[in-house]
Design brief:
This protein has about 240 residues and is α+β, with helices and mostly antiparallel strands. It has helices at about 5-15, 20-30, 55-65, 70-80, 95-105, 135-165, 175-185, 190-200, 200-215, 220-230, and strands at about 35-40, 50, 85, 110-120, 125-130. The chain is about 55% helix and about 15% strand. The mean pLDDT is about 85. This is Histidine kinase.
Length: about 240
């Protein structure tokens, strides 16, 4: 894991209030040298909290015009669980094109990816990285840093919930093999590489990962890795 992410995760762990977490989000943006970064959480009760670097006039216009009802990014993420690259979404409708154009006019970059996060008791969060670049540069960036930023997204969400009094539930202990499997994945190894390192089949590895995911109450493997790291169950 890159040193810049190690430092950021340490700072997240030291955050004692939401204001400090908000500052950490700005720091994350600067460390990865992107245009904007957004974390927005909505609880089932309707309570919301956000840490974002978008210009305030754009935020005000977005909220005032209820753009979330036509935003292809929000609509896609609300239906799915995996990261969404903005360029792969359908922007063909007139409202969507107008929304994108207005965002660019208000200082947003032309590239972005967003990660939906689903937490306890119906909580839904969106983590977005936005930048201004060509397709080749953006592709290189996402290939190089996607893993880091997905982990950071789950760490931000975990910390926001903890600071808001909704930390994770007590966990069951991971077995040594479950710990080893998640540690290798956190280090950036593929499933095939992790299985080879542990001298087990990929099928057996999958069993360990699913068991760890269940114990950690995680929605997917990335969430399990992030939870295990944030709880100190695995170390890099």
């Amino acid at each position: 894991m890159a040193r810049k992410l190690d430092d950021l995760l340490e700072r997240l762990g030291d955050a004692t209030d939401l204001s400090a977490l908000d500052s950490a989000v700005f720091d994350l943006r600067d460390r990865y040298d992107v245009e904007h970064l957004v974390y927005h959480s909505v609880k089932s009760s309707g309570d919301q909290w956000a840490a974002l670097t978008y210009p305030q006039p754009w935020v005000d216009a977005y909220v005032e015009n209820n753009f979330q009802t036509i935003d292809p990014v929000v609509l896609s993420c609300f239906r799915g669980f995996t990261p969404v690259d903005w360029k792969r979404l359908d922007w063909s409708s007139r409202p969507a094109r107008a929304l994108f154009g207005e965002g660019i006019a208000n200082g947003l970059g032309n590239q972005g990816f967003s990660l939906p996060i689903r937490g306890p008791s119906g909580q839904f969060a969106l983590f977005t990285v936005n930048h201004r670049s060509g397709d080749d540069t953006w592709g290189k960036f996402t290939r190089g840093y996607m893993h880091d930023l997905l982990l950071a997204a789950h760490f931000v969400n975990e910390r926001a919930l903890a600071l808001d009094g909704e930390g994770h539930a007590p966990h069951q202990a991971l077995s040594p093999r479950e710990t080893d499997a998640l540690t290798l994945l956190a280090a950036g190894k593929s499933r095939a590489q992790a299985a080879e390192r542990l001298k087990i089949s990929e099928h057996t590895l999958r069993v360990y990962i699913e068991s760890a995911r269940f114990k950690l109450g995680a929605l997917n493997t990335t969430h399990a890795v992030a939870n295990a790291l944030s709880r100190g169950l695995i170390c890099l």
